[in-house]
Amino acid sequence: MRNPKIITEHWGKIDPLKIEDYLNVGGYAALKKFIAKMDPQKALDEVKISGLSGKGGAGFLTGAKWEIVAKQKGEKYFICNLDESEPGTYKDRLIAENNPQILLEGIILAALTVGAKKSYIYLNGNFEKAREILERAIEQAKENKFLGSKILGSKYLLEIEIFSGAGAYICGEETALINSIEGNRGEPKIRPPYPTEAGLFGKPTVVNNAETIANVPWIIQNGGGRYSECATKLFVLGGAVKKRGVAEAPIGTTMKKAIEELGGGMQRGKDFWFAQVGGAAGRLYLEKELDAPITGSGAILVVDKTANLYDLLLSWTGFFRRESCGKCVPCREGTFRLNEIVERLADGEISDRDKEAMLDILWTLENTTFCPLGKFAATAVRDAVDKLGVVSTNYE
Amino acid sequence: MQKSSTTSKILLDFDPEAANLLPALKKINVAFRYISEVDAEKVAEYFELPLAKVYETASFYDLLETKKPAILEIEVCSGGDCTLGESAGIIKEIENRYRIKTGDEFNPKVRLKKISCLGRCSEGPIMIVNGKVYEKMTASGVHKILGEWG
Ligand SMILES: Cc1cc2nc3c(=O)[nH]c(=O)nc-3n(C[C@H](O)[C@H](O)[C@H](O)COP(=O)(O)O)c2cc1C
Ligand code: SF4
Ligand code: FES
Fold first, then answer.
1. Architecture per CATH, B72-148
2. A250 prior amide bond cis, ω within 30
3. Could you tell me the residue ranges of all domains in chain B?
4. pLDDT tens digits for A221-269?
5. Banded model confidence at residue B4, pLDDT cuts 50, 70, 90
6. Which one of the ligands is nearest to A63 CA?
7. Of A360, A315, A371, A311, residue with least CA distance to A337
8. pLDDT digits 0-9 by tens, B11-22
9. Which residues of B touch A318 (CB under 8 A)?
10. For residue A348, pLDDT beyond 90
11. For residues A249 and A302, what is the distance between their CA atoms, to the nearest angstrom?
């Protein structure tokens, strides 16, 4: 079966500021079906059958996460994670800008399924345009009775509020995100308890990535079984490919295929060197490794042989030095010192002591930090050492 | 209108609840380009929080400033895609133009900051001058734009 375009089908064809456009292409049919013919248990079953997994990086099974919260009684929250501050990734922003209603319909279905009456969209503080579009979309959804009390005349109710972040990569991590909404510093919290047990304001909370959520209307409309046969993923192509941007393709698409077909191949006159998959926190892949499927959030940065590796090392280590939240010492100190050593490396002044220290720091980041950001900070540098021989070779 | 009365007015748009602290700080930051000590005290009073708590939150986020900004605040994206573009060269060009170093904070006239990816990679390299975003920058192109800012 040909893979349908589940998320991007209507991009560029409908006006994101007009709910009528979305309704005209069959929008909100899934919500109508849910209200008329289904109940939360049935919807949960479909999502479980679909095998839908998280698109925010970790790939956790969405149905399993929802079930934990759906089982609990009382006040609950549903949060759409649209913080998207992983460098090189902007698929979620484009969902909001091109088809905000598909996202809202997904949020509504998800919230009703898990039994939340209040939902937040945690939006990256830089996404001004997306904010305006989403605000308008929420108003229009309310006017059409898809939101508010008595949704489509039923007993269901839901309120969606946009919460804008203020520029902090760590706030994409779900417990830090929750801290941020609560008015605290956006530092991660210790787990357990998991947000599904004690999340926002101490209540059971589901946090899902925006792309994950945007798949839900299709699943409810067409069934989890069908979804499991033709699931897709958004990929973000960057660097030395002809077509930079976001493309939807089957889950499991290999790096090679993504570069050649989605990215249109290498730019004229540029030779492939390596690809980084998953943003600044992403692993590096050499040409011989490109037959593996793209994992994680779906960003792929193609680096050609004319690139200055030191500039990239500075980009990665500088990013994590700035974005370390400072809560734990190994990450706070480690990201700082790693960046300093890379600065010396770039200046051609690296000593043997620096080289040893660099390996020590990488190990510390990989093994001792409080949250995954520490590990992320080491990933690309580790691969640059192991695969590109960055401390042993002199690039010029 | 006096600045202090405006801050108080901004605060009145928000119920003094925890979830409104960050939105309120952001709005003050947009209005005055940073959150001064006086404003931080007003926020603390309004939300009935210790001043230290307000600073704790305000100092955490990139989009909030607690120090008075320079007249010219230049930011250059240092994400991977912009770096593969020319952002390193752009940064050097600006450093030379003003004889400043990235990240130095003591010059009251001009400051240059590397920032993290803004998710506009396909339009990069990105430079921001006092909040205005410039796309597809080149190292040689910075002078014309910065010249317009005086
Ligand atoms: C440092 C860090 C940054 C993260 N940033 C994001 C993000 O920007 N967007 C996102 O959806 N998930 C992000 N995550 C993952 C979230 O913690 C969480 O797993 C995800 O939102 C769950 O949604 P999903 O199951 O639909 O993927 C991040 C995790 C870490 C450790
Ligand atoms: S690993 Fe880094 S980001 Fe995570 S808690 Fe520690 S300091 Fe904060
Ligand atoms: S790398 Fe500069 S906007 Fe993404």
1. 3-Layer(aba) Sandwich (3.40)
2. no
3. 3-60, 72-148
4. 999 999 999 999 999 999 999 999 999 999 999 999 999 999 999 999 9
5. low
6. 1
7. A360
8. 999 999 999 999
9. 78, 114
10. no
11. 18
B35 touches chain A (CB under 8 A): no
- Distance of alpha carbon A239 from alpha carbon B36, whole angstroms: 40
Closest CA to A369 of A177, A86, A173: A173
Which residues make Cβ contacts (< 8 Å) with residue A103, sequence separation at least 6? A80, A95, A96, A134, A210, A213, A214
- Report yes or no: A259 and A290 within 8 Å, Cβ to Cβ: yes
Handedness of CA A290, A296, A298, A301 (dihedral sign): negative
What pLDDT digit, counting tens, does each position of A129-141 carry?
A: 999 999 999 999 9
Which strand (E) or helix (H) includes residue A302? strand A299-304
Residues 6+ apart with CB under 8 A from A73: none
Percentage of chain A exceeding pLDDT 90: 94
Interval between CA A173 and ligand 1 midpoint (Å): 5
State in Å: Cα A311 to ligand 3 middle.
14
Q: What is the CATH number of domain A231-304?
A: 3.10.20.600
Structural contact between residues A22 and A101, judged by C-beta atoms closer than 8 angstroms: yes
B44 touches chain A (CB under 8 A): no
